[in-house]
Structures are given as C-alpha cells and as structure tokens.
Amino acid sequence: MQSQILPSRAALVDRIAMQFEYGQNLIALVGPSGLGKSYLAETLITEKYPEFNKAYIQVTAQMTDAELMTQLLQNSFRAPLVDQTHSLSENFFQLFQSQPCGPCFWVLDGARHLSDETIEQLRILSAKSPVELFILVTAQAPRMLPNALDIHLERLSLSESKQLMAMFF
Known about the structure:
The protein is α/β, with parallel strands linked by helices. Helix content is 42%, strand content 17%. It has 6 helices and 5 strands. The protein has a 5-stranded parallel sheet with strand order 2-3-4-1-5, sandwiched between helices. Helix 1 packs across helix 2 (37-47). The model has no long low-confidence stretch (mean pLDDT 91).
C-alpha cells in the first residue's frame, strides 16, 4: 500500500477509473514533470481492478519496442511465446486465441519514449482487443497519443501543498 494521497488526487484516480468504465480504453495522463503523474498511475494500478492482469512499465529511451512488447505480454498471459517478428497486436491476438487471458490493465510511464509504431499498436489494441484492456500512459504534452483521452493534471493549490507537506513533516 502506498502512502496517503490528497483528496483531489484520489478524486482524479476515481475519475480516470470512471472513464475506463465508460468505455475509454486509452487514456493519457498529461502534465509537466514533478506533478505526480507516476504516483497517480501507481495508485490507480495498485488500488483499482484487482481481478485484472496488470503491467506497470517505466518506459525509457533505452527500451526497445521488442522489450516493451515482451513485458506487456508476459504480464498479460501465462508463459507466452512472443514472436519478435510480429507486432504487439498480432502477438496479442495470436496468444489470446491459444490461451485466452482475463482483462488487462497496462500503465506505460513515459510516453515520450514510445515509438510511433508502438503508439499505433496501442491504438489498435485499445479499439479491437478481444478482452477488456485498459491502457494508461503518462505524458508531458497533450495529444502525444492520437485517439487517447487526455486528462490534464493540475498543480496543487496552496492549501493542498500545505496538506501534502503536513503528511511528511
């Protein structure tokens, strides 16, 4: 369990979950560095959807598309045989036919490091997945993922900043 979360941030976690439940499968949490996007994403994946297969991946500049694909599929299926010559969506559909998985929730922390091909694969899967698939991506700028719902994270108010500081000191 993570440490406490401010009421406004907890409300945002609930809002994101509500957007998933309303059928928006691809969401980008947008805001400049230091606002707590990663913390909110961790809170969401930790506290919501306990029955889902979950993957939280911190995407880095050194990570290849193949590594990202392998990590996502390993967290979604039991012992998947990933074909590196196929795309993420092709592998997902093939694996699902041979060993169906339950609903999945993927968090990709760091949209700026995603390739155009991976972004397109996420779009395809969010629209055509044979199983419930929620994808949350953290981004520093809006519209980094076409077809994603951008939810903007605002700075804390002065009173919330004081409340946050009181939690730690």
